């Protein structure tokens, strides 16, 4: 385990930013701290870095206690959202900076520094910009240089705080896949903070979902997406429809439709109210409802966006709005239009019964 966070708490006045939080981060992996604004992600990152002191708890790197180590002794590299490069220095000088300011006995000679900087610039695919100044680079290029600068001092741990947060959507998407490929090359233990679930799912080896200073769930992107531990995680990881249903004798009922048998193990959940969550791409639409498993609804909005047709429907029983995404092929078969009365089927529903008891219900 390369980074171990044990029982960290941090208050700002009366506000609890981190609440007895513990976490272990595997070596060589890229871990995303994901959570809504104010959930404590940046505070945790700053405490790991040594930029902020916890009220209690312990931080270890590779088995060594770092809690009282100064930031300069921890061997961390940073990239921040607005970590401006030195404007008056060229790209080369910016990346070389951390090496040039090392104490004399640790400082590499000039030729070694030049070789290293050029290698790093090639690694971030900006070798040709060595003589330019930051003002002559795009925002995305500047962040790549900031990353090269952070890597120059060979940190043990790389910390990135919303590194692409200030960039536009297209550049952001490019840098995401670039960061993923880069990490596959360097395998440095890295933590990056984001509130963008897509970014976390696409880039990270592990995701830590945070809420109100605590960890809600941690695991691989697939595990967290496929098996969210609770409604908070489920809702946070993407668009979702919520239905109120009832489990009766092991069957899930939603708006007079018999959705089918549930596999909920807990006895209390066998006859109870249930919150039913379904993602838009798991909502299926049919024109007929012979087995009464569909919820009656009317199409109120329809628009095709690239390969997906987005629909909004309103259920006839409760008036609840439902978002559905159909593949174009599926849409072509039944060609529904606005105003049509159809049936909504819930696939891969996550059923959370009252009192936090929950089950996974899959047709
Ligand atoms: N120095 C400080 N003084 C007072 N309150 C602070 C300080 N730093 C953070 N906070 C508060 O602690 C809470 C957690 O902040 P933090 O920046 O860790 O959240 P975050 O999850 O990174 O959110 P965001 O995505 O908005 O940056 C916030 O409510 C913030 O206002």
TrEMBL record:
One of its GO terms (molecular function) is ATP binding. It comes from the Bacteria. It holds the Pfam family ABC_tran. This is Sulfate ABC transporter, ATPase subunit. The keyword Membrane applies. Signal peptide: none annotated. Keywords: ATP-binding, Cell membrane, Membrane, Nucleotide-binding, Sulfate transport, Translocase, Transport. PROSITE patterns: ABC_TRANSPORTER_1, ABC_TRANSPORTER_2. Gene3D superfamilies: P-loop containing nucleotide triphosphate hydrolases. InterPro entries: AAA+_ATPase, ABC_SmlMolc_Importer, ABC_transporter-like_ATP-bd, ABC_transporter-like_CS, CysA_C, Mo/tungstate-bd_C_term_dom, P-loop_NTPase, Sulph_transpt1. GO terms for cellular component: ATP-binding cassette (ABC) transporter complex. Residues 3-237 form the ABC transporter domain. The keyword rRNA-binding does not apply. It comes from Desulfurispirillum indicum (strain ATCC BAA-1389 / DSM 22839 / S5).
């Amino acid at each position: 385990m390369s980074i171990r966070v044990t029982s960290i708490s941090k208050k700002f006045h009366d506000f609890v930013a981190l609440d007895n939080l513990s976490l272990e981060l595997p070596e060589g992996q890229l871990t995303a701290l994901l959570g809504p604004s104010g959930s404590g992600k940046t505070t945790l990152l700053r405490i790991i870095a040594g930029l902020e002191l916890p009220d209690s708890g312990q931080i270890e790197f590779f088995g060594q206690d770092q809690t009282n180590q100064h930031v300069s002794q921890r061997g961390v590299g940073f990239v921040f959202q607005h970590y401006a490069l030195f404007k008056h220095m060229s790209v080369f000088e910016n990346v070389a900076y951390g090496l040039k300011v090392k104490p004399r006995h640790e400082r590499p000679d000039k030729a070694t520094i030049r070789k290293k900087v050029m290698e790093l610039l090639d690694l971030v695919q900006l070798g040709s910009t060595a003589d330019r100044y930051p003002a002559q680079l795009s925002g995305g290029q500047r962040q790549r240089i900031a990353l090269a600068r952070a890597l120059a001092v060979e940190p043990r741990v790389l910390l990135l705080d919303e590194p692409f947060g200030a960039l536009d959507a297209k550049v952001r998407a490019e840098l995401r896949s670039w960061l993923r490929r880069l990490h596959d090359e360097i395998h440095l233990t890295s933590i990056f903070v984001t509130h963008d679930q897509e970014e976390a799912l696409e880039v990270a080896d592990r995701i830590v979902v945070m809420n109100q200073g605590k960890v809600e769930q941690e695991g691989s992107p697939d595990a967290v997406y496929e098996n969210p531990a609770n409604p908070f995680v489920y809702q946070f990881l993407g668009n979702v429809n919520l239905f109120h249903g009832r489990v009766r004798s092991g069957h899930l009922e939603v708006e007079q439709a018999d959705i089918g048998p549930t596999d909920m193990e807990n006895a209390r959940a066998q006859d109870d109210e249930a919150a039913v969550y379904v993602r838009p791409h798991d909502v299926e639409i049919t024109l007929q409802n012979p087995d009464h498993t569909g919820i009656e609804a009317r199409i109120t909005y329809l628009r095709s966006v690239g390969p997906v047709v987005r629909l909004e429907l309103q259920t006839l029983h409760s008036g609840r709005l439902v978002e559905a995404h159909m593949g174009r092929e599926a849409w072509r078969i039944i060609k529904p239009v606005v105003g049509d009365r159809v049936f909504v089927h819930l696939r891969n529903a996550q059923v959370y019964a009252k009192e936090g008891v929950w089950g996974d219900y899959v047709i």
